[in-house]
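Run log, item B.
One chain of 265 residues. Sequence copied directly from the ordering sheet:
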Amino acid sequence: MSSLSDKTVLITGATKGFGKSMALACAKAGANVVIVSKSVHVNSANKDTIFTLAEDIEEMGGSAYAIQTDIRYDDQIERAINETLRQFGALDIIVHAANVFVGSSSAQIDMSRFDLMHQILPRSLFLLAKYGVNHMIESANPHILTLAPRYEEFERSTYSKTAYAVNAMAQSVMVKALANEFSDSGIAVNALWPQGPIQDFDDQFFALKEPDSDPLMIDALTQAALQIFQQPANQFSGRFCLDREIIQDHADFTLEDFIPKQLAE
């Protein structure tokens, strides 16, 4: 039986990219998946809405609940968590997959775009923890996971714009601070980051300077997250995990399992 069987996982940014991959993987692993996003219309940026993704999960035999949420707003995050509890009676895992990258220079960036990155990256992570902590204490193995780099990885990355740097690294600081604050509650707070390029991800956004690394499918990042959730929350917290390191340490997988088919042939 999967370690996520009957667990409830709330995922932000769940209609595309890493968030969508996590939603599908958690559902396959037996979790109740709460899809949190403001995407209710298909457009060029979103091929799925919260409703179509929930339908896909249910059609494959999983359990999903869609909650339209703009995570910039305190009351909407609080409402999403309360609805999660009403629907499933528990909150075990939070995955903060929502992200935004603005590559403008410091001289050119519009401050509304700076504020957007702040709202989506560190501020919403803080709100998820703020409104979730008292309910997650009751879970047997509660985890909070976000996408954030270690400082040394940040220095080696291909992005260097100050506005994004400040907001991305604010999440990293928060991971350490929340992990320390929640240690007595047994809630794990960790970060995950790709060690090399991920297929279809913007290199400016994610990729580290690993020129000899083949890109991996997004499933690599997702599988690494699933392995984190199997760790005891009261012992595995405040970590900055790299996807390839976790996969290489797991006997059931190799990096070759996540090479895109067109590159493997």
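Observations after the first pass:
- The mean pLDDT is 89.
- The CA atoms of residues 198 and 218 lie 6 Å apart.
Flagged for discussion on Thursday.
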